[in-house]
Amino acid sequence: MSGYESKSAVVVGGGLAGVTAALALADGGLRVTLLEGRPRLGGLAFSFKRGELTVDNGQHVYLRCCTAYRWFLDRIGGAALAPLQDRLDVPVLDADRMRLGRLRRTALPVPLHLAAGLSTYPHLSLAERAKVGRAALALKALDLDDPALDAQDFGSWLAARGQSPRAVEALWDLVGVATLNATAGDASLGLAAMVFKTGLLTDPGAADIGWAHVPLGELHDTLARKALAAAGVRVETRAKVDAISRTENGGWRVGTEGERIDADTVVLAVPQREAYELLPDGALDDPEALLSIGTAPILNVHVLYDRKVLKKPFFAAIGSPVQWVFDRTDASGYEGGQYLALSQSAAQDEIDAPVARLRARYLPELERLLPAARGAQVRDFFVTRERTATFAPTPGVGRLRPGARTEAPGLYLAGSWTATGWPATMEGAVRSGTTAARAALSALSRPHDHLFQEAA
Fold first, then answer.
1. Which of 38, 238, 329, 453 counts the most CB atoms within 10 A of its CB?
2. Strand order of the sheet with strand 8-12?
3. Residue 59 domain-assigned?
4. Are 115 and 183 in a shared domain?
5. Membrane-crossing residues (predicted)?
């Protein structure tokens, strides 16, 4: 960029936060190097090959209110490959009663957009539906900037507002477990209120669901690499960073096994424990707080049938160990049958269970939920485990999450675990990357109007 002294940046970590930061810094005129220890980009939202099959490590969705992730998809040219529903419509199967209901919206203004769907939702009694409506209005009235919300748990707040265990299971946890990766009793009220207010109580279409119709690697690795290359970013994979230190002239030196790179700016976009190991002394007032940010697992169960057993693209279940089931047949390249992926959040009790035990539990359960599966042959059954899939959204976690700026000039933090205001989602990761880039560009007196604006 003419008129500016040439400046350089190193981004450590090639997940969504790191890729976003690298693109934003390059768009701001910096010479950027992106270092990733794995052989691929995408962080915890990636794909891998299993024979002829292309497998996503887990099912990732986003909502229409995830405006930063939508900005990211546009930036890498992938929006058409991860379309949104025209209108929220979630099939919900009650496994105990074998009754199908739907959570859906109309085009009416908030909160009337959900009134019709809630009034006919068969998994709650009339009295429970009325109490859900009152709790939703109470949520809408909460001030998300109130730090006291972070110290409370969502489950106790719901119970105090008359929400029955059935209402929690059939509605609040149905949404909350999938977005927070925790049940209501284990989740911060602040984060839960943010999810429900933003997704359900702001704009009629905010909760419309989108997901990749291609392997995640095509978006977060292939298209991301193309966008990075076009922006002039040097990308090095299999380049694990082992040291970050100050140089004699006040800049930064980032070391890998193969090289040492000097830069004016560094964005550290790695998980919190890895960030703790790399942070130089004095970068944070309380670096030990990073180690107090817990993690939560997600288990994904993959089943390949010899025939079609599910007509819908996805459904959610209650009264069952099964949570959410997605049809991944076309995206994976599977032919001659149907490939279902089960996304099991808050999976602390099963994350280390042997495959044989998981098979014995989930195949009969799928046959119970899907009659067409009872006569189908299972061609393959396997699991993918993300033991540290997200940070744990426990009460009090908000005070532990650091902002993008550190006490060391020129060093910034990014990652869904930083203080984005969001839980650990793709949206939170992208927001953290733009926030870190904005802070870096501002410190260098570089323009940043090109960045996603709501992330400030």
1. 329
2. 234-236, 31-35, 8-12, 265-268, 411-413
3. no
4. yes
5. none
